[in-house]
Write a structure and sequence with these properties.
single chain; alpha+beta; five-stranded mixed β-sheet; 7 helices; 13 strands; 27% helix; 29% strand; globular
């Protein structure tokens, strides 16, 4: 367990790396005795700093929602990070590659809650009933810690959260069997990754279930109006200056973003 001073120092270094767009050694290399509790505390300090400077809370992201990613990170559950309002972009946005250290993109479904969802004991039925609508999205992730990085580093880095590009479609929670929502991720017209939303814990709504029950351990809940990114069902794709990224969700349309 880290001291409060060590947590603050780790947060300061990660925020500095984000501002300077220069990767740094992960906190776990400096403090190998750190715990996952430390990591979440470090991320929270960073979020508090950003909010104090004017950023607004918008929702949360759930990561490591596939078995393969959990095994590669040597954990048995997902993780989560915070989404702030200055992370959001609209479909067709042009994003400066130079604003990030090592950006990658993922294909996801975003759930927007209409009702408060509080654990423990939240079920998939509860989560779907509390959902107002679902939006196809691209998540932009960025790694401030250098490789090799551990789950402790990623969580401390706010789950590598960097941006969300929102699609235009609005899907009701009962409109489709969400397990079968498919996506194709293209870069400059070439197919890079394909997948089904069932790759997210068997059903993307289960990411909302996990998050609500996890937050209950911290005395928190998902509030009405919050947006929850449920995790990628494809592997992340690198984004370079000049790249045109398209997430094709079939009948739900596309989400497009250009890196300049």
């Amino acid at each position: 367990m880290l001291s409060d001073e060590e947590r603050r120092e780790a947060s300061r270094l990660l925020l500095e790396a984000e501002v300077n767009r220069v990767q740094i050694p992960g906190p776990s290399r400096t403090w190998p005795h750190m715990t996952l509790e430390d990591s979440y505390a470090i991320a929270a300090i960073g979020i508090e700093d950003k909010v104090s400077r004017g950023a607004g809370f918008r929702g949360r992201k759930v990561g490591l929602t596939s078995k393969a990613m959990q095994r590669s990170s040597q954990i048995d559950e997902p993780d989560f990070g915070i989404l702030l309002d200055d992370m959001f972009f609209e479909h067709g946005a042009r994003i400066a590659r130079g604003d990030y250290c090592l950006p990658r993109v993922e294909l996801e479904l975003a759930f927007v809650l209409g009702d408060r969802l509080a654990g423990p004991g939240v079920s998939l039925t509860d989560a779907m009933g509390a959902t107002d609508h679902i939006v196809p999205a691209i998540e932009l992730i960025d790694a401030r810690p250098l490789d090799p990085r551990t789950i402790f580093d990623t969580v401390a880095d706010n789950g590598a959260a960097a941006g969300v590009v929102m699609g235009e479609a609005r899907l009701g929670p009962e409109d489709l069997d969400l397990r079968w929502v498919g996506g194709i991720l293209l870069c400059n017209g070439e197919v890079e990754e394909t997948g089904l939303a069932a790759g997210v814990l068997g059903h993307p709504g289960n990411a909302v279930v996990w998050l609500a029950n996890k937050l209950a351990e911290l005395g928190l809940a998902i509030e009405a109006g919050e947006l929850i990114l449920t995790g990628s069902f494809v592997r992340p794709v690198w984004a370079q200056a000049g790249d045109s990224i398209v997430a094709d969700f079939g009948d739900l349309g596309t989400v497009d973003v250009d890196f300049v």
